[in-house]
């Protein structure tokens, strides 16, 4: 039944991505895909880099739009620039689009706000339709961006036949199940409230993940910084030994995104390294995992999904953690100090 369902979804994909139909050929034949974005949208771009390269074998480069616009990057006519932006008004991302356009690249926009400047400046694009973001910090925009970018990657993979049909169909069925998986992940709320109470006075936080979950570590840290004003750093877990390990002691909470994927064993040893230095570990684990919960101070379960889709689910407990810590510290979560919803200068 799943195989048939996957086939049906595959046949409908071009309708979902109708907004990029005229540029689909450019995307498929791209020499390189450049992703330009800022903040949370940049983190979604990093996940997309892993997904697009894995499933389509097109080289991807992810650029902070705020840097890209001011340097002299090599851009070719057969490059496709994907600009990701929740608001569609971020000045740096708009400037990156103009630069790429001036060199003849194809521009695709992934925005939430219909008719926004970035949507209008792009050749074509796909809206995320996440609904209005009430708070300044992006949350549901991240998941919605990942959904669109993953659908794009799978569409290219289908056209270029870079994935076995069975794998493609399985991924599409899994992608459709994401809303219910997120609903399940949200059930951790009570547990997160208790954990937030214990760590609300922390001075620092470290977030570590590997593979598809590495950008989730960056995003977890950014959310905590943005709304609770606690200093937080996100790193690939394998980078820990190259510096951040020096920070770990009994005062340092470390959030591991440690779901069951191809880097599971490696992350288990990273957790051991932190525990050996008395760090406090909060781990996001796959439902049913017993090993990591036996090693850490707090384990939060999320439902199992294909590892490439996990960021949409594993980010949920981290967004909640930042939210509850911020509320307990008396911060205005919707209107954090010094932050604007769209950075237009
Ligand atoms: C980018 C961004 C957000 C962040 C804050 C400031 O915005 O950095 O990720 O949460 O709102 O702007 P956008 O280009 O995705 O609208």
Structural account:
- The protein is an alpha/beta fold.
- α3 runs parallel beside α7 (140-160) and α3 (39-56) runs antiparallel to α11 (214-228).
- It is globular, with a radius of gyration of 20 Å.
- The chain has two domains: 2-176, Rossmann fold; 181-328, 3-Layer(aba) Sandwich (Rossmann fold), CATH 3.40.50.
- It has a five-stranded parallel sheet with strand order 2-1-3-4-5, sandwiched between helices. A five-stranded parallel sheet has the order 7-6-8-9-10, with helices on both faces.
- It has helices at residues 2-16, 24-28, 39-56, 65-68, 91-102, 117-121, 140-160, 165-176, 178-185, 189-199, 214-228, 264-276, 291-295, 310-328; strands at residues 32-37, 60-64, 79-85, 106-111, 124-127, 204-209, 231-236, 253-257, 280-286, 298-302.
- The N and C termini lie far apart (51 Å).
- The model has no long low-confidence stretch (mean pLDDT 94).
- Bound molecules: 1-O-phosphono-beta-D-fructopyranose.
- 1-O-phosphono-beta-D-fructopyranose is lined by residues 38-41, 85-87, 90, 93, 136-138, 339, 341-343.
- 1-O-phosphono-beta-D-fructopyranose binds next to α3.
